[in-house]
Amino acid sequence: AQSVAQPEDQVNVAEGNPLTVKCTYSVSGNPYLFWYVQYPNRGLQFLLKYITGDNLVKGSYGFEAEFNKSQTSFHLKKPSALVSDSALYFCAVRATNFKTIFGAGTRLFVKA
Amino acid sequence: EAQVTQNPRYLITVTGKKLTVTCSQNMNHEYMSWYRQDPGLGLRQIYYSMNVEVTDKGDVPEGYKVSRKEKRNFPLILESPSPNQTSLYFCASRWRGQGTEAFFGQGTRLTVV
Question: Do A99 and B48 touch (CB under 8 A)?
Fold first, then answer.
């Protein structure tokens, strides 16, 4: 069965420090992996995706993610966090054209 | 501006009173879907549509209906809402293709009392 796990409900980081939001997945076949961000009272916004090729994917707002096939992980990273990065982050996997599985979400809190 | 528009943004209703949440996209996307977001559960797919007149159930379709008569519109219908359908609902659209990202509406917060 397909699944996505975001093991941390919340991640706290100081402004200027690097951040990592973790995601692991389980899917048969080649996965298509996505990260979305949700700001308060807004819909989800696309950040980045992994389809194929280079394992390090760069996306919007300085975020990047590393695809690790052996560990079935797709962790979201940013070298230097901003207070404005505080939001709810969702990892998602698509193994067919019809269905996307979302993780439960990780709330990122960046302290000034 | 490319967007997915949902209405209403907020709705409080009573048990059993039929309601419709509208969704419209202006990007000519083939694929549209509805999700509900509940704390600790992430987003769960209710229904999806691959194109006009083509719809199918997602993971949690019970108590919901949809229709896709036009490419741009994908309304969500609750024929007889119940309190367990109190949730935050999102409509999304994307191009056909496994690697395409989705565009989301701003959400509809529904409370059924």
Answer: yes
Mark yes or no for CB contact A104/B40 under 8 Å. yes
- Cβ-nearest to A49 among B33, B44, B101: B101
Show residues of chain A in contact with B103, CB under 8 Å.
Answer: 46
The neighbour count for residue B99, using CB atoms within 10 Å, is 15
Count CB-CB contacts under 10 A for residue B50.
16
Q: Digits of tens for pLDDT over chain A (112 positions)?
A: 789 999 999 999 999 999 999 999 998 888 899 999 999 888 899 999 999 888 999 999 999 999 999 999 999 999 999 999 999 999 999 877 678 899 999 999 999 9
Q: How many CB pairs under 8 A join A and B?
A: 56
Please give the pLDDT value at position B80: 97
B45/A94 touch (CB, cutoff 8 Å), yes or no = no
Positive or negative: CA dihedral A82, A85, A89, A91: negative
**Mind listing the pLDDT tens digit for each residue in B48-61?**
999 999 999 999 99
Task: Say whether B42 and A104 touch across the interface (CB within 8 A).
Answer: yes
**A67 contact B CB<8A:** no
User: Using an 8 Å Cβ cutoff, are B76 and B21 in contact?
Assistant: yes
- Nearest alpha-carbon partner for B106 in B29, B8, B30: B8
